[in-house]
Design brief:
It is a single chain. With about 270 residues, this protein is mainly alpha-helical. The protein folds into 2 domains: about 45 residues, no CATH class; about 200 residues, MetI-like fold, CATH 1.10.3720. It is about 70% helix and about 0% strand. The protein is built from 12 helices and no strands. The N and C termini lie far apart (about 50 Å). About 30% of the residues are buried.
C-alpha cells in the first residue's frame, strides 16, 4: 500500500515537473510584453503598454505579419489543392509499386532536407527569376511540405467509400467533379489538418525566407524577429517578447477555430 502511494506521488511529481517545464515559457511570453523591463527570469511585471507602441512604430513589424499571411496562406492553399489531387489519384488508381512510390517520396523528403538542397533550390529560383518574390517562397516551401501532406491525406481518401463515386460516374460525373463534390466534403477534417499544419510550418519558417528574400518590405515575421536585437547582438527582450506574442496569436486563433469546427485526427472518412 505504501509502495503504491509512493509510486503515485512520484508519478504526480514527475508530471507536474514536465507540465511546469512547458508552462513556464508560455507564462513568460504572456507576461513579458506587459513588463517595462523584462528579464529571462519570471517575476511580477512592471505593467506598461509601451512595448506594443514601440512594435507598432517599427516600420517592418506590421508589414511582416501581412507578408507571413501571404506566404503561409498561399503555401497552405497550394499544398491543400495539390495534395488533394495527388492523394486522390494514389488512393483510387491501382498501379504497380504505388505504395512503395509513396513511401520513397516521403523518405526522400525527410532525408534530403531544405538545408541540404538549399544550393540547387537557390540556383533554380535564380534561373526562374523567383528571388525576392512571394511566389518563390510559396513554391519552394510548398514543395517541401507536399510529400508528407500527400501521405497524410491519402489515409483520409482510403477511408472514404467508393460506392458514392460509382453512383456519380453512372450519372456522367468526371473525376474532378467527384473529387470536388463527393470526396472533399467527406475529408474536410483531413484538409483542415493539412491546412493548419502547412500554414504553421511556413508561419514559423526562417531559412528559405531569409535566403530567397532581399527586400525588407517582403520579409515575414520570423525573419523580422531576427532584427530585434541591438547592434551588439544583445536581445531586446521587451520587443522580442511583444512581437512574438502578436505573431503567435493568429496561428493560435486559427488552430482553435479549426479544431472546434472540424477537429483534428489522422484518419478520416466514414464507415462503409
Amino acid at each position: 500500500m505504501i509502495r503504491h502511494v509512493l509510486g503515485r506521488l512520484a508519478s504526480t511529481a514527475f508530471i507536474a515537473v514536465v507540465v511546469g517545464f512547458f508552462t513556464l515559457p508560455m507564462l513568460w511570453l504572456a507576461a513579458a510584453p506587459f513588463d517595462a523591463t523584462p528579464t529571462i527570469s519570471t517575476s511580477i511585471p512592471e505593467f506598461t503598454l509601451g512595448n506594443f507602441s514601440a512594435i507598432l512604430e517599427n516600420p517592418y513589424a506590421v508589414g511582416s505579419i501581412v507578408n507571413s499571411v501571404i506566404q503561409a496562406g498561399g503555401a497552405a492553399a497550394l499544398v491543400v489543392v495539390l495534395a488533394s489531387l495527388a492523394a486522390y489519384a494514389l488512393s483510387r488508381v491501382r498501379i504497380p509499386g504505388r505504395d512503395l512510390l509513396l513511401y520513397l517520396l516521403l523518405l526522400l523528403s525527410s532525408v534530403v532536407t531544405g538545408t541540404a538542397a538549399m544550393v540547387p533550390i537557390f540556383e533554380l529560383a535564380t534561373r526562374l527569376s523567383l528571388i525576392d518574390t512571394h511566389l518563390g517562397v510559396i513554391l519552394v516551401v510548398s514543395g517541401g511540405l507536399l510529400p508528407a501532406a500527400i501521405f497524410i491525406l491519402k489515409d483520409f481518401m482510403d477511408e472514404t467509400p467508393t460506392s458514392y463515386e460509382e453512383s456519380a460516374r453512372v450519372f456522367g460525373a468526371s473525376s474532378l467533379q467527384i473529387l470536388r463534390h463527393i470526396v472533399v466534403p467527406l475529408v474536410r477534417p483531413g484538409l483542415a489538418t493539412i491546412a493548419v499544419w502547412a500554414l504553421a510550418s511556413v508561419w514559423g519558417g526562417f531559412l528559405f525566407q531569409f535566403i530567397l528574400l532581399r527586400d525588407p518590405d517582403k520579409l515575414p515575421g520570423a525573419v523580422i524577429l531576427y532584427t530585434l536585437y541591438t547592434e551588439g547582438g544583445a536581445p531586446r527582450l521587451e520587443l522580442i517578447s511583444t512581437f512574438s506574442l502578436l505573431y503567435s496569436l493568429p496561428v493560435v486563433l486559427m488552430y482553435l477555430f479549426v479544431a472546434k469546427r472540424y477537429g483534428f485526427r489522422f484518419h478520416g472518412g466514414i464507415k462503409r
